[in-house]
Design goal:
Blueprint (H helix, E strand, L loop, with lengths): L5 H20 L7 H21 L2 H9 L3 E5 L1 H4 L2 H18 L6 E5 L7 E6 L5 E5 L9 H15 L1 H4 L5 H10 L8 H5 L6 H12 L7 H14 L4 H9 L21
Parallel strand pairs: 1-2
Antiparallel strand pairs: 1-3, 3-4
Helix pairs in contact: 1-2, 5-6, 11-12
């Protein structure tokens, strides 16, 4: 398998597709057949490598990468219920929103005060320290940390899920859909690797819209924007009007568990 990353393969594929389109339109195309054949061969090889990277095993490997770090004070790190609830949160976000969060690396940080915790993205792209409310009851601490973590993940969706990585998440969600009548082959036939759709999916997550039914979202996006020749802003606003949106108050209710005292 190629040592190229998914993003590098994607970029090379897009570049080759553009080059081939130009060569095929050239009035001297018959003299360029050898060059065209070489580029088509390279494109085929890249497509094979991309398929390997999108396989289930590679997808799971990508999810295991620790992109999100939750640093707890020594006191908070003793809360076994909190650590367990992080797992429930990731499962809930995948089922309810279609947001497949990578593994969250949980560490204790002796530099934090007892009532503090920090959330950051690996590489230091985004980092923020949060403080527990002094009047917060012990049984509510876990839910507060989880709600804060989830809000952070939504607010930074485009960083947590880089636009290139969205290929993996889209494929994984599609593969696990059980709803009938989804026309996945239709939108796959269009070059969805372009930035528009992936950027839009990150935007939907940040604004608390569900992308769980990825085929529906993609089909409608293409229908409004590409097939009906609407402008992008109109297409996005129309699609948002028919998608479910989750208010902040529901963020914790899905995974409240009994605290361990």
């Amino acid at each position: 398998m190629s040592k190229l990353s998914l993003s590098e393969i994607t970029e090379k594929m897009l570049k080759l597709e553009d080059e081939l389109a130009m060569l095929r339109k050239n009035k001297f195309e018959k003299f360029l057949k050898i060059n065209i054949k070489k580029k088509e061969g390279k494109l085929t090889e890249l497509m094979k490598n991309r398929s390997l990277l999108l396989s289930e095993s590679n997808f799971l490997s990508n999810l295991r990468s620790d992109k999100v770090v939750l640093s707890l004070s020594f006191k908070l790190a003793q809360r076994k219920d909190l650590i367990y609830t992080v797992s429930l949160m990731r499962e809930s976000m995948a089922k309810n929103w279609g947001y497949l969060v990578p593994n969250i690396w949980i560490v204790d940080n002796p530099k934090l005060a007892d009532d503090e915790f920090e959330i950051k993205l690996r590489g230091g792209a985004v980092s923020e320290i949060f403080k527990l409310d002094a009047n917060l009851r012990r049984e509510d601490v876990s839910n507060y940390v989880i709600a804060t973590l989830q809000t952070f993940l939504f607010d930074n969706a485009s960083t947590v899920l880089s636009l290139h990585d969205m290929n993996l998440y889209i494929s994984a969600i599609k593969a696990n859909e059980t709803e009938a009548g989804q026309n996945s082959s239709f939108w796959e036939s269009v070059n969805w690797l372009r930035w528009d759709l992936k950027s839009f999916l990150c935007e939907l997550l940040q604004e608390r819209y569900s992308i769980k039914n990825i085929s529906f979202v993609a089909d409608k996006f293409l229908e409004f924007y590409y097939l009906k020749n609407k402008n992008l802003d109109y297409s996005i606003s129309t699609l948002k009007s028919i998608l479910p949106m989750y208010p902040e108050k529901l963020f914790v209710s899905d995974w409240v568990i009994n605290s361990v005292n």
